[in-house]
TrEMBL record, chain A:
Pfam families in UniProt: Collectrin
Organism: Danio rerio
Biological-process GO terms, alphabetical: positive regulation of amino acid transport
Cell compartment(s), UniProt: Cell membrane
Cited InterPro entries: Collectrin, Collectrin_dom
PROSITE patterns listed in its UniProt record: COLLECTRIN_LIKE (PS52010)
Gene expressing this chain: cltrn
GO cellular component, one term: plasma membrane
Lineage: Eukaryota, Metazoa, Chordata, Craniata, Vertebrata
Protein name: Collectrin precursor
Keyword Glycoprotein: yes
UniProtKB/TrEMBL annotation, chain B:
Family affiliation: Belongs to the sodium:neurotransmitter symporter (SNF) (TC 2.A.22) family.
Name of protein: Transporter
Molecular function per GO: metal ion binding; symporter activity
GO cellular component, one term: plasma membrane
GO terms of biological process kind: amino acid transport; sodium ion transmembrane transport
Keyword annotations from UniProtKB, A to Z: Glycoprotein, Membrane, Metal-binding, Sodium, Symport, Transmembrane, Transmembrane helix, Transport
């Protein structure tokens, strides 16, 4: 049995193409809604910006789609990504939505989730700044926020403070010890000065036998002669 | 007493430059870390304002009489703790030795706490504060797990500061960072202590007054923080029913006792450098009242800040619930606020209860956060540091707080070290060739080396042991014997005569009643009750064990036998010197009956010539 195949006419082709073009947003929505490759995005404008928060409208969505396209371009290095490749759906008042990325060559095919995630993580900082938001307030559900790299110091600041404190203390200790040593030296010089300085007037030169042999300059208290005046009253 | 040796001893004994130095030193010794982190805690757990009643009763009947006694006895007998009790009766020399040993042991761990304070102080200059966030783990994938399961503040304290081992048996290694801080702490102590009271007297102008300045700054700042009034209300609302609990009275009595730093021998040492004619009654009242007033004054900013912290925690709790609800129900951002949270929750629960319950919202109650109390190092290094992160300008507040803690502890360290130095000087244990500076340096070096055990991984556990076993029962025993010594051996009449000579009036009936009756009885009751309470509960310690199944809660581990025997040793060794010295003297008195008493037949006018220069046989 021979099947008769009829070649489509030109009118049928235009009609078909028109339907596809008109239906493509609907198709696109289906791609977005039912996809497992989609990411949910949550934006907290009032938390981030308070009174300066802008309104989330179509223009902002347009900006979002373009930044995502930029992120894909940057990741893949291909300049073929355009705003039509980013599909957004499920808008809520939260503000949250779901987006998917289609292949530039074939709008019916989606980019796998892992690739999109890598692209987002690479450009997250730029995406955040485009919206004046942060990792906390522009949330891609499932994409963990990139951790801030800890600041590496050449000299940890605490060592600097420690060095300053211990330096001051060390200087203080040395100064106090030096002052004690110099005081002792001066006292010893005054003691020795009695024996050696014969030229000074008014200083009686001792013959070095009686008093200098004793430890105390005051001499030895002779208990045979005690100060009785306190006890004996006339 | 012949005049020349009397004048020479007066010249040799150092003295205070002026009365202000003496008072500031005593106040600084009494006012210490406990006023900041123990008294507010006790107020909190014992029913706020109601705690003040047992506290003030203990102050009036136990604290002030003992304080007056110590200052008076030091001033009249003009010696350190060993010399004073030996003068009263040679049988009681052991009391002084016990004071000295306790002062030494307490000084060891007290300065380690100051080393920790220094560590935090050094790090308070960093931006952001290192205890505000978890560090990233080695693969740079996430945060360190131990930190994530507990809190950044806890992790910083237990891991990055102490590097604590999970068990007291595992000593770990010396933490070089802590060793550096300990060396710094001891150097700072040395530079102030280098010439004894000469340098201490100048250092206290700063260390005793600076904490009050900082407390005032904190008071002003804390009262303007949100949630401060909640904290204050919670603190001061009295709960009178707790007064029937005997534990409250016991804790009040012990708090007053330890807060005034009695029985360390430091106060005796300080007053021994006073001129003979000095009104020690007024000094005692001054020091005692200022100490308690400081405790009260400090508790206000502490509680305002704790109230602020509780409010912040409560707000974060509620905010995390709000975020969960907002995300689950896709409600507009910031539509739910803390104020309308309850009404929103009701509405949502009415419309979709299953989804709400699936969120597992936290139950946030402000009172639960206010109930989280902490004392001791937990208050300073965990609770307060967490509060400081939330305050704007955290670095400034952290720096101020830790400098205040350091100066509070430093002025108390002076008393501890004087309690060790003065008796040694009075016993003439210092070789004549050694200048005082070298001797004090030697004391500091020995202390530093022994205190290195607290820089090990298990150091914090050992410190807690020292704190609970050395700084408690031995002091109570020593104080009890001090009162007995003065009342029974010295005699109240003789003591009153001395006081009349010094102050110009005899101690009035109140003081005499306290010394002879109320205070010794109170001390005995407190001592017995304390020992009974301690013996009843099996000693355990909270260990920080990341492997524990309920981590981040601390694991209650019992002390093993050898550790517990060390605890018992620490409590008994200081005290054992009292009976040992008494026995020794009794035995000596019996075997050498004449050596104790002056021989009426010795004539001091004629010294034995063989001891002086020997003349060659003429």
């Amino acid at each position: 049995m021979r099947v008769k195949v009829q070649m489509p006419s030109g009118e049928m082709i235009t009609g078909f193409l028109l339907t596809i073009i008109l239906l493509s947003p609907v198709v696109a929505q289906d791609l977005c809604k039912e996809s497992k490759d989609g990411f949910k995005v949550r934006i907290s404008l009032k938390t981030a910006l308070g009174n300066d928060a802008y309104e989330w409208n179509e223009s902002e969505k347009f900006l979002f789609r373009s930044t995502l396209a930029y992120a894909m371009r940057k990741k893949t290095g291909e300049d073929t990504y355009n705003i039509e490749n980013i599909l957004v759906c499920n808008d809520t008042k939260r503000v949250s939505f779901i987006f998917v990325v289609t292949l530039p060559a074939d709008p019916t095919q989606l980019i796998p989730k892992e690739e999109v995630e890598r692209a987002v993580r690479q450009s997250k900082h730029r995406i955040n700044n485009a919206f004046l938001l942060s990792d906390m307030t522009l949330e891609f559900v499932g994409v963990p926020p990139t951790l801030a790299v800890p600041i590496q110091y050449n000299t940890p600041p605490w060592l600097i403070v420690f060095g300053v404190v211990i330096g001051i203390v060390a200087v203080g200790i040395v100064a106090l010890l030096m002052s004690t040593v110099s005081k002792r030296r001066r006292a010893k010089a005054k003691d020795a000065g009695f024996d050696q300085d014969g030229d000074d007037e008014g200083i009686v030169k001792e013959n070095g036998t009686a008093l200098s042999g004793l430890n105390k300059k005051d001499g030895v208290y002779n208990q045979a002669f005690s100060n009785d005046e306190r006890f004996t009253k006339l | 007493m012949d005049t020349a040796s009397e004048t020479s001893s007066v010249q040799e004994r150092p003295k205070w430059d002026n009365k202000v130095q003496y008072l500031l030193t005593c106040v600084g010794f009494a006012v210490g870390l406990g006023n900041i982190w123990r008294f507010p805690y006790l107020c909190q757990i014992y029913g706020g304002g109601a705690f003040l009643i047992p506290y003030l009763i203990a102050l009036v009947f136990e604290g002030l009489p003992l304080l007056y006694l110590e200052l008076a006895i030091g001033q009249s007998l003009r010696k350190g703790s060993i010399g004073v009790w030996h003068s009263i009766s040679p049988l009681l020399g052991g009391v002084g030795v016990a004071s000295m040993v306790v002062s030494f042991l307490v000084g060891l761990f007290y300065n380690t706490i100051l080393a920790w304070v220094l560590w935090y102080f050094f790090h308070s200059f960093e931006d952001p504060l290192p205890w505000s966030q978890c560090p990233i783990n080695d693969n740079l994938e996430g945060y360190v797990e131990e930190c994530v399961s507990s809190t950044p503040v806890n992790y910083y304290w237990y891991r990055q500061t102490l590097n604590i081992s999970p068990d007291i048996e595992q000593s770990g290694s010396l933490q070089w960072t802590l060793v550096l801080c300990l060396a710094t702490a001891w150097s700072i102590v040395y530079i102030c202590f280098i010439r004894g009271i000469e340098t201490i007297g100048k250092a206290v102008y700063v260390t005793a007054t600076f904490p009050y300045l900082v407390l005032t700054i904190f008071l002003v700042r804390a009262l303007t923080l949100p949630g401060a009034t909640d904290g204050l209300q919670y603190l001061f609302t009295p709960d009178w029913t707790l007064l029937t609990n005997p534990q409250v009275w016991l804790d009040a009595a012990t708090q007053i006792f330890f807060s005034l730093s009695l029985a360390f021998g430091g106060l005796i040492a300080f007053s021994s450098y006073n001129p003979k004619k000095n009104d020690c009654e007024r000094d005692a009242l001054f020091v005692g009242i200022i100490n308690s007033a400081t405790s009260l004054y400090a508790s206000i900013p502490i509680f305002a800040i704790l109230g602020f912290k509780a409010t912040s925690n409560f707000n974060s709790c509620v905010n995390s619930n709000i975020l969960d609800l907002t995300n689950a129900f896709d409600i507009g951002d910031r539509n739910i606020t803390i104020e309308n949270y309850d009404s929103w929750l009701r509405d949502l629960n009415a419309s979709d209860p299953d989804r709400v319950s699936s969120l597992n919202l936290k139950h946030c109650v402000l009172k639960n956060f206010l109930d989280q109390s902490a004392s001791g190092t937990g208050l300073a290094f965990i609770v307060f540091t967490e509060a400081v992160i939330e305050m704007p300008g955290s670095q400034v507040w952290a720096v101020l707080f830790f400098v205040m803690l350091f100066s509070l502890g430093l002025s108390s360290m002076f008393g501890n070290l004087e309690g060790v130095l003065t008796p040694l000087l009075d016993l003439h244990m210092v070789p004549r060739w050694m200048p005082k500076e070298i001797f004090t340096g030697l004391i500091c070096v020995v202390n530093f080396l022994v205190a290195l055990i607290f820089t090990l991984g298990s150091g914090n556990y050992w410190l807690e042991i020292f704190n609970s076993y050395v700084g408690s029962v031995p002091l109570l025993v020593i104080a009890f014997f001090e009162i007995i010594a003065v009342v029974c051996f010295y005699g109240i009449k003789r003591f009153s005569d001395d006081i009349e000579q010094m102050t110009g009036r005899r101690p009035n009936l109140f003081w005499r009643c306290c010394w002879m009756g109320i205070s010794p009885v109170m001390l005995l009751v407190v001592l017995v009750a304390y020992v009974v309470v301690q013996v009843q509960k099996h000693p355990t310690y909270p260990a920080w064990n990341p492997q524990y199944e309920n981590f981040p809660e601390t694991e209650e581990k019992p002390y093993s036998t050898w550790v517990f025997s060390i605890c018992v040793l620490l409590s008994s060794v200081p005290v054992i010197s009292i009976p040992i010295v008494a026995l020794y003297r009794l035995i000596r008195r019996h075997t050498h009956p004449h050596s104790g008493y002056p021989n009426p037949y010795t004539n001091q006018s004629y010294t034995d010539d063989t001891h002086t220069q020997s003349f060659k046989q003429i």
